[in-house]
Amino acid sequence: MTRTISVSSTGFLEVVLCVLLLFGITMFFPMYFKTWFVEATGNIKIAPFFGFLFGVGLLFRKQWARTGAIVLGWGLLAIFIVSIITEPGRSGYWLVLALDGFLLYLLHNERLKQYFQ
Question: Rounded to 5, what percent of the chain is helix, strand, coil?
């Protein structure tokens, strides 16, 4: 049985938004807005490999990618909460915390569950 990806498919737009959020949280913001998280001389990486892997897997309707993205999302949520507590002056953690919360909402959404069936 082959599955085709179409824009009218239930949950496809949610998947695209999840992929964009995963790429933004794990790759874009830490790379281009590094000083929001650490000092200018510091270095930060937020699971870029897993963000890319799960994002591509979501586009290809892989159930393991949805499960992995949920686990990654909850793990990142915990890390961001601890980071906010230890460094409350860094605005980047607040941004990615909000984006991660929205990502988790989308990943648990009923339309997204239907997309993988």
Answer: 70, 0, 30
